[in-house]
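Running log. JK asked me to keep both predictions on one page so they can be read side by side. First protein, sequence followed by its tokens:
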Amino acid sequence: MSKDKKEKLLQFIIEYNQKYNRLPKKKDLDSNVSFPPYYQYKKYFGNMNNAYILAGFKPLMKVFTESEIKEITDLYLNSTEKVKDIGNKYGVDEGRIISLMKRMGISGRNKKWSKRQIEILRDIYPTQSWDFILEKLSPFTKDDILHKASSLKIEKSNFGFNEKQVKFLVDNYSNYTIKELANLLGKTESSVAAKAGRLGLLKKEKWSNEEIVIMRKYYENSSSAKMCELLPKRHSNSIIDMSSKLGLYKKYNVYEDEVIKNELLRDLISFAKHLGKTPTLPEIRNNENLRGASTYIRYFGSYSQACKEAGLPVNSMMFGKAYHISSKNGDFCLSLAEKNITDILIDNGIKYDKEILYKDIIKNYKENAIKSDWVINNVIVEYFGMCDRADYRKRMMKKINLCKEYNYPLIDLYPSDLKNNYEGLIKKFAEKGIEIKV
């Protein structure tokens, strides 16, 4: 009976490969009740690799020989080679090496410091980033390095800030609040304030009455470049923030200037040719030779529309590659998660509006560049899927603070809310009186 069972399991692998042109993985087996479950392969063959080999296929994962396991163990415990380099020798990534060591019951490496490693520590610890330090002093962990540096009385001179972060802080200290800088740098507010104090950075003086008069007189009909000329002490971000505080907004007759629109399109096409692809919004913002992304949005209604008029494939994602995904009813979605949420609303018969400008939702708010993901019964719903990115967090916090400021109900969703069969999403919708079944 056991032999017949093994033959049936092996035959399934062959049939699956013929049908899908690939070998079944554990998740394939466990996600479909019509497939033999993974535990049966583990029971009869030990692991899937053994089953693949008996079915006549090459294993998906390298199988180590006994001599290789012995060599790897010796290198892992008794050499100073990086785990990554050990993996490269045997054609696997460092995760396989660590996993192999765990199965061998080895939880850590020899942590004895050599003279050379101590020299490296003294040289790089005071000024380099933790990513660089950990790379150079592998296999030591951050705790190992902190302990050794403390025992040798070696201190960091940059206090956790690398050169790039220090430069950003110096260049932008007067343009953002401490809280904004902390979000952009991925630091705590106290660490940013302390570092600024050590660098002797000072906030610029308050806006003068003369500057306010210039803002009121020229802002509505002037370009960002012109306003920077009129207010040489102010950064463009500071000018935009002040315009919002003063309730000043660009007049639309300015944006109808065909000459300016043609210049914007020409610059966009030139930059796209340089990159070899359609630029993303952050790439537009970070290019000092281009006008700001908000300028494209004001002149064309959206960055996507500007790309279309320039004859470029739309790449409106904030970061990386653009995805063109449609929901069940054809709504355009910028990520698979956004599509899944939209489909859940459709399946539950919940009416919604998608991609509505905040200025069309919130009375007296006029900025033209911020859109909502969904609006349901006067409740704004946003999916924040890239909170680990500083530029994305800034836009996210702007939306959250807008809803707080104008007392507008918000359902803020995160990747964690989509886990466990959308448990968090269901709970947050229920709190707003919206029943969701998945």
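And the second, directly underneath as requested:
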Amino acid sequence: MDLEQLGLHVRNLITLSETASPLISCYVNFEASRASYRDALDARIKEIRRALPPDQRHDFEQALGRVEAFLASEINPEANGVALFSRGGGSPFFLALQFRLPLPNLMLVDSVPHIYELVLLKDTYHRYIMLISTDTHARIVEVSVGNVTKELWTKQPELRKRVGREWTSEHYQNHRRGRTQKFIKEKIEILDRLVAKEEHTHLILAGNPRTVTRVRARLPKRLQDKLVDVVPVPNGALTEDVVTATLSAFAEHEQMESMETAGLLLDELRTAGLAVSGTEATLEALARRQVDVLVLSESYTAPAGWKCHSCKAVGIGAAPIGCPQCGEQTVGGISLMEEMVRLAERFGCTVEIVRDSDVLFDIGGVGCLLRYLLPEQRMVRLQEKPAWSVQA
């Protein structure tokens, strides 16, 4: 599965019509062993069965049956994480997504799919191009959400065995140096064209240390600017093993970029620029489609929230009996963090999830960079001193 396919699945999930039947969002971690998830999953199923209202139990068991059947017989041996979405009743739904990347053990039941873990995966391991290079061969591949999704170029020059017959050892050494330099130049030229054509913004070099050092030294500045890391791997390593070795380096680089976005958010807040912070202001900006980038702390804990299933109004606090906007008694509790992520994905906003950010903690754990200010917001900010406030 590549980034585009995952994005399509996320969009299909957030546009899935709600029904009265409960929908299971189940994330399973297979990193340790195929049975390691079972205790956590069984305990969660017991909790859900105790809490479900009687009129939803039949449809829940129907949805759970499909989850259990898939876990029992259809897991890819290479999968370290699986996301399952299942609903029974009159409008059944089932979707299974398998990843080489790990996911947490988690089961949630709601009227809508919970997609935060998929968005976190998409944000952390989105896409990069990788040059795997040795003295004798090279491959350029695209890695997307932990998988090799494109084989962009492979080259293994012909090796001559003419030493002792037609060439002296010195002739051979000179020839080999010349061929190596030419090979490196060819690799970089092809890499440059592919990066530009595929519009990649992240590059990783991998291979034996001597070769990747030579390649790095000759990269033009436009490729140096895209370079995430140089990862040494032994000659003959399988491509899958090389990808695994580079994933942590890419995740760390992505986290640095997320921290930079959090810093930009703070700068905009300090100068009363294109940003807001806090749960309430962020929800309002998302509803008005002003948001360019939603910035969430990974440790953000949203307050209680509610949503009207008739007019789609969203509020903070305990769910009222009737909707304050339309008066209908179709209000239920929701996860406001999930609602923010769903709105951001629906409206095509970038989502940045940041670990260990004191900046975000100080402003309530959530904020967003805006595309524009409304006229009334612009007038208020012109009258105010540059500052920011922490909202609920």
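Observation for JK regarding the second prediction: The two ends are 38 Å apart (CA to CA).
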